[in-house]
Amino acid sequence: MSERVRASVRLRFAVACGVVFVLAGAVLVAGLALLVRHNLQPRDGLRHPQYISAGGAWYSQWEREYRIAELRVAQVRRVYQADTVRNVVVVGGLALLPAGVLAGLLGWRAGGWAVRPVRSVTASARRVAQSHDLSERIAYDGPPDEVGELAGIVDGIIGRLGRAYDGQRRFIANASHELRTPLTINRTLVDVAVRRPEASEDVRRLGESLLTVNTRHERLIDALLALAEGERRMLDRRPFDLADVVEHVLDLAVAETAERKVTVHRLLDPAPTSGEAVLVERLAQNLVENAVRHNHAGGQVWVSTRRRADRVELVVANTGLPVPAYEIETIFEPFRRLHGDRLESERGSGLGLSIVKVVTEAHGGVVTAAPREEGGLTVAVELPYHQP
């Protein structure tokens, strides 16, 4: 939970206290005004006082003066009643404003006291998340209330995640060993058989075919393990420059680009980010290999890195066969190959862009692809910017 979220919860609690107090005060002032108005109404015994009349002309004059005086008294009473009720409403309403602010401040203090245990749990959970050590626990030592129950549930989830992560890591290590060992033995045996002086031409052609298939299987296993590792592993985020990683990958691809007669244009501006540099190197390698291998002789590849606001960007574009727009949404799926080239093992196993997507998402980034009008593909990877 961020500072903004904590402040928002606390602020909503404070505002709710102030609003409730103002509404309750308004109802109280309205009731008081009605009560005062009612109490200032004339009583039945005072509404028409009884006087002893003497009769005659004198009585008529006295009666007229009495009526005039009664009207004046009624007028004064109405003005006094209106002024009194207005004063009650105005003074009460003005008093509600500072009282509402005071209630909000008290609610702010009470909200801080109420969310203090949640802050403690949040700080502990953040420490566990940033340490990437699933053996740590929140270890809440407060009373056994709702916050303590929540902390216990989170500790249980972290424990299960830790056990699942350890089991998955052991599985990847064992699978890597068990799958690579027989392929390594096969490659060694075939290579020895092909290099024997008495080996016939047919045996050598068969051995070369078997070595090609064996190499394809090794790449497939490496890709599957990288895909599983990219999806499951907890990233140890360390700062690095994406431009340095991409430049290293391009240097390693010089031989293949020269063999395929592909020209690579590089424009590598500084792009500092953070994460697992080895996985990002595999991401960049897959993009470059995809751009080189899905190209034509004499084609071109453009590779660039740059910073854009709070993101860094890696863009790889290449020439080649036109890519239909409807295939863009599926090229990041596992074992998806463009143009149906499943038999051309030299172009890969169909997991390259899947690994790119998994590694990008594991680093909190976004990957997009778009076909080029002249043919080929443009793939853009955006990763979070890291302040050096």
From TrEMBL:
It is an enzyme of class 2 (transferase). SUPFAM superfamilies: ATPase domain of HSP90 chaperone/DNA topoisomerase II/histidine kinase, Homodimeric domain of signal transducing histidine kinase. Residues 174-387 form the Histidine kinase domain. Residues 112-166 form the HAMP domain. InterPro entries: HAMP_dom, HATPase_C_sf, HATPase_dom, His_kinase_dom, HisK_dim/P_dom, HisK_dim/P_sf, Sig_transdc_His_kin-like_C, TCS_sensor_his_kinase. It catalyses: ATP + protein L-histidine = ADP + protein N-phospho-L-histidine. GO terms for molecular function: phosphorelay sensor kinase activity. Its EC number is 2.7.13.3. CDD domains: HAMP, HATPase, HisKA. It is found in: Cell membrane. Pfam families: HAMP, HATPase_c, HisKA. The chain crosses the membrane at residues 12-36, 88-108. GO terms for cellular component: plasma membrane. Its main location: membrane. Keywords: Kinase, Membrane, Phosphoprotein, Transferase, Transmembrane, Transmembrane helix, Two-component regulatory system. It comes from the Bacteria. This is histidine kinase.
